[in-house]
Here is the input.
Amino acid sequence: MKSAPKHNQRKEHLDHVALDVEFLLISVIQGVALVTLATSAVGPMISMETGTWPYIAVAFLFILIFWSGAIIHAVSFIDWPIDLIHSFLYFLASIIEIVAITNLMHPVLWFFFLFLF
Here is the structure.
């Protein structure tokens, strides 16, 4: 009978570890997307290419929306054991997001990759 509380404590600890890993993964991946956006946006912003500014703003909103949605998802559903396939999907989504961001100057590719995202 005394092992049940210890088991629950271990499970709670592992749930917290899984959630911490998920938060770290989400934040680092979206940090990479944010850096990509920043480096892609410098040129058009300095040269005053105002036609690309809406794309930059939308890309920034996409990063914030994806990050906040992923955090809400993690808080709601992530527990031990860690689902690696689920975690790998964050990488896939981030790659598509980053490819879209690097195509700020090419609207057709921009919209195509955001559609995939």
User: Anything to note?
Assistant: DSSP finds four helices and no strands in the chain.
